[in-house]
Amino acid sequence: MDINKVSCRKAFTSTLEKIAAQNDTIFMVCTDSRGSVTAEGFADKFPAQFIEVGIAEQNAVGIAAGLATIGKNVFVAGPACFLTARSYEQIKVDVAYNHLSVKIIGVSGGVSYGPLGGTHTALHDIAGMRALPNIQVFVPSDNFTTTLITEYLAKNDCPAYMRTGRGDVPAIYCESDNFEMHKAKKVCEGNDATIIACGEMVYPAKMAAELLKQEGVSVRVLDMFCLKPYDEESIISAAKETKAIVTVEEHSIYGGLGELVCAVTAQNCPVPVKVMGFPDEEYKIGSSAELFEHYGFTPPNIAQEVKKLVKAK
Amino acid sequence: MDTLKKIAYERRLDVLEMIWASKSGHIGGSMSCMDILVTLYYEIMDTDKILKNAPDRDRFILSKGHCAEALYAVLADKGFFPKEDLKTFGKFDTALAEHPTKKIPGVEIATGALGHGLSIGVGMALGLKNTSSTIYVLMGDGELAEGSVWEAIMAANKYSLNNLIAIIDRNYLQISGETKDIMPLESLVGKFEYFGWPVLLCDAHNPERIIARIKEGRQGNAGPFALIAESIKGKGSSLMEYKTEWHHQIPNEAQYKQMKEDLRHGYQ
Q1: Residue A157 CA to chain centroid, in angstroms?
Q2: Which residue from A minimizes the CA distance to B147?
Q3: Residues A50 and A139 in one domain
Q4: 20 to 30 A Cα–Cα from A304, which one of A5, A15, A43, A63?
Q5: Which of A137, A169, A201 is a domain's end point?
Q6: Does A106 reside within a domain?
């Protein structure tokens, strides 16, 4: 496996397969989604730990909750667009309200399924999950963070949601990088502004910082791979030390990382914040790359937004 | 079996007191399912194991979670928590919410969003396959309109869950009226059977029949089965029997006294 080019969903299933080989309490529930999830290997190797419920997300999450009451650690995996919307009440009640060890794994989140249209977008999922008490929310940015979070979820009995993208993504980190769960990861240091990003937006954010460096603008980049509980301290430090923040996320401008950063800064250390997310409108059809370009999630455009804030300081 | 009937009337009186004290609750459905609850908790399930949280205990899921007060009355009488606690039902900061939560000893899982219980029961039954534990899921007939119930019915059949029993409190009424007008269910037997579930019918107010039917259903069963228990909503007082409005109406003082009198006479 080329560690530098792998999809987060594949990083998830490879990691879970390794863990399940040693731990028969790990279960996976799929919704005719084993292909989307890349869970065929898990299904073949661990048939007694794999439950297939067909296209029935509500049932999948309810069954996962029932299994969790018996001491299983259950991963329900399917396309984020369906799993987080169709079974929202089961996630809220059966899983979160009951504090059960069920991990909701939404694959192909955001606009991963861009050409499939508005039925298949998941740009609401972070907002929905963040609003539910007791549930942790993760958005990994590459295969390293995906593996790290998967290992954490396999060891802990918290209810959780993890969203991954669909396509191969470049590695941002390497084996020697250290992470602290529930803490933002500093991708690079800088003093003139901070870009806070999550998921697949971390890479263009890092590229934007590199472009700005060439122009003499020093930018800090934070990877907020854990959105709940979130790292308030790093946000406040960024506000105090760099005095300008741009947030970038593959999510609606409502209820995601941008609003989180605005809430933290407004209540602790108000500084100018620019929120880059998907606008409240019906989205165009196109590949992820085309949509990122159209909606401005490119390194030059992110750099441009940073420069505007720095200039206005 | 008269003893179980008598116990059920006593628990109905407990429910009436809880509803009268808190001025809240779901009286009609609590009365209709009481004989089923009493039969399960006083005769069929080993409550010592449930009290001890033994891994091989039977599990009960009150999918019709709005009838929590009926379950609380039974759990308190069986010693899961002090009877005194029933007085806190529905009051500020109580553990005894109007829908059950895991904070209450004996409650396996929080329910109350309808149509969830059977999926959870399927998950439990999968996790406990080939063990001695049986999972009982009590559902209202109104909640059978939820699509997720039928997803669970299909899954239970697929996985041949012979440790799962669905009991339907078939009282023919729901909050807005008769089930036949709100969303017709018939043929309910046919629906279950087409989904691969054997169906048994019984009088929901005859503990002897409930016991016999469950025994019969369990004989060499290869998968789950449904027990459709024909009940009377508001059972125990003519004031509320068969009446839609008593889904969650709170009695006034005269009605409260009348119901108390009726319930006392029920077993005398």
Answers
A1: 19
A2: A58
A3: yes
A4: A5
A5: A169
A6: yes
Our count of domains for chain A comes to 2
Q: Which residues of B touch A61 (CB under 8 A)?
A: 119
Say yes or no: A206 and A283 in one domain: yes
Report residue A5's pLDDT band, with 50, 70 and 90 as the boundaries: confident
Q: Domain end: A110, A140, A169, which one?
A: A169
Distance CA B216, CA A94 (A): 32
Does residue A104 contact residue A83 with C-beta atoms inside 8 Å? yes
Q: Which two tokens stand for residue A276?
A: 């880059």
Indicate whether A132 and A52 sit together in one domain.
Answer: yes
User: In this complex, is the C-beta atom of B149 within 8 Å of any C-beta atom belonging to chain A?
Assistant: no
Residue A175 lies in a domain: no
What tens digit of pLDDT does each residue of B103-157 get? 999 999 999 999 999 999 999 999 999 999 999 999 999 999 999 999 999 999 9
Provide, as residue numbers in chain A, all residues whose Cβ is less than 8 Å from the Cβ of B108. 69
Per-residue pLDDT reduced to its tens digit, A96-138: 999 999 999 999 999 999 999 999 999 999 999 999 999 999 9
- In chain A, which residue ranges form alpha helices assigned H by DSSP? 8-22, 34-37, 40-45, 57-69, 80-86, 88-90, 125-130, 143-155, 202-214, 232-242, 257-268, 288-295, 299-312
Best of A55, A59, A88 to mutate (most B CBs within 10 Å, chain B)? A59
Do A119 and A247 share a domain, yes or no?
no
Residues A191 and A235 both lie in one domain: yes
* pLDDT tens figures, B13-57: 999 999 999 999 999 999 999 999 999 999 999 999 999 999 999
Domain range enclosing A164:
6-169
- How far from A245 is each of A85, A259, B34, B198, B227, CA to CA, in Å? 31, 12, 60, 62, 61
ipTM: 0.96
- The answer to whether A57 is a known catalytic residue is yes
Same domain, A213 and A269: yes
Whether B151 and A59 lie within 8 Å, measured CB to CB: yes
Structure token pair of residue B111: 């329910």
Neighbours of B199 (CB within 10 A): 18
- The answer to whether the CB atoms of B120 and A93 lie below 8 A apart is no
Q: What is the pTM of this model?
A: 0.96
Annotated catalytic residue, options A57, A200, A250, A305 = A57
Contact list, B109 vs chain A (CB under 8 Å): 65-66, 69, 94, 98
